[in-house]
Structure prediction request, 549 residues.
Amino acid sequence: MTYDVGVIGGGFAGSVLAAALARNGVRTLLLESRPSPGFRVGETLVPYASSLLRAVARRYDVPEVEALGTLRSVERDVSQGCGVMRNMGFVLHREGLRQHPGEVYQVVNPKVVPDPPHLFRADTDAYLLDVARHHGTDVRTGAEVTDVRIEPGAGAHLSTADGADFHVRYVVDAAGHRSPLARELGLREEPPALRHRSRAFFTHMTGILPYDRTPAGRQTGQPSPWHEGTLHHVFDGGWMWVIPFGNQRQARASSVCSVGVVLRETGSELRPPEEEFAGVLARYPDIGAQFEHAVPVLPWTSAPRLQYSSRSTVGEGYCLLADAGGFVDPLYSRGLAHSLEVVGALARPLIDAARDGDWSAARFRPVEALQRGLLTAHDDLTYASFVAFRDYDLFNAVVRVWTLSTVLGALAVENACAAYAKSGDEGVFAAARPGGEHFASLAPLARDLCQEVEAGGRTPQDAAERIFAALGAADYVPPALGLADPADRFFHNTPARMVRAARWVRTEAPEETAALLKGAMAGLVRERLRSRRRRQGESTSWSHRQAAR
Prediction:
């Protein structure tokens, strides 16, 4: 049998793509090397990614995928092992000193957006594999791809370790940094064409004290509990993530958390991760207080270098999907969002190719441009952030650039979803890119200013002032949101702020911005009402079942 598309890798991106293709009549093969899903980096579904998940689900008619978009639907349909993501928090630490309660930043999800989850990937990846299988994908687990032979004009042969051979017309490699296709075709760039350099070690732990219950965490005054979101401890030279599962109710110290440390790559000899982790806790006492009774429940995983890139991600008969093509750093939890952006852009030309037989590389070049742009933008922002970790004023400015990108991105996708519901025109998704030259210039501006800081040619305070000035000059940002105000440390859309922002949209916003915000907010309100009706229906059904007993 010849398949239209062979997908290598049954993680998040590979399974969502396979489900979308099979649902639309594409003969799809999925080869996953693991016998069953396990721990993977990429566990925070930010609201931007949640919006993209809903867009992919509706655009390609795979409603089961949409169930991952909110905590409520995940708990109902997928797994009780996930957590809630109500905020993204950042706490800056200085070596050997107590944490200053004013050196924090938090982005709180707006109430109009349903809470997205922290994904317990072993459960959610297994669910997505089943969704792909349900829609007709031929899913083979424990199938390690050992050889990929591209035959221009005739497709490709995929060979596995157990001696099986599969013929496909097109290969999508979604296997991450171990990409068999990148290896076979020699596509990796050495060194990576990326500015940022870092390494990491990570595991799951239990016995972690919620940061809100530590002496330092009680003094920061943030609007949302740190433990109800993804917490970033940042410090000169690196950062740590704490992603709790089971935190949607009263958090207990026994709850499992994903924990990882990312450090600037220096080329020095590496020590065992247990020793390095203990060293971080010793240098930063208020991080140490959170982990006094913590123990790993999985072996530590080390990545001596996180960064890699490819000279090409699209060629004759193949595409390296998302993390198979390149990776920067898990900072800001952009991985799942980037994967969904690329899946949304790649699925349509694959479906069309399966129908008309045109598998030429030119058809997929826009996907390569998209992936390269996403990788470069994240590289710029991550590099700037690592320089800024040494100084709160500078980090306070750089983190606003990320905030603006994720907020505008989510609004653009919500606007597209609302437009698609009305017109059925898929073109609205291709146009769902937050933008304008001013917005596109912010990450490079932060990068260049931080490069000057690192070289000693500019002070952190001057760089911070210039970034805040650029944010203040952005005529597409509602002033009421406080992004250009250094003293406003919490991006929290209270009712009063929303009223002022709505007045600005009606009276002062540029036409394009006003249309974007109005469309997105109308779509979100409809989603909220739809969710409420669904909950009422579930409650009624439950009542009927109870009465029948």
Summary: The mean pLDDT is 91. The two ends are 50 Å apart (CA to CA). Residues 279 and 288 are 10 Å apart (CA to CA). The chain has 16 helices and 19 strands.
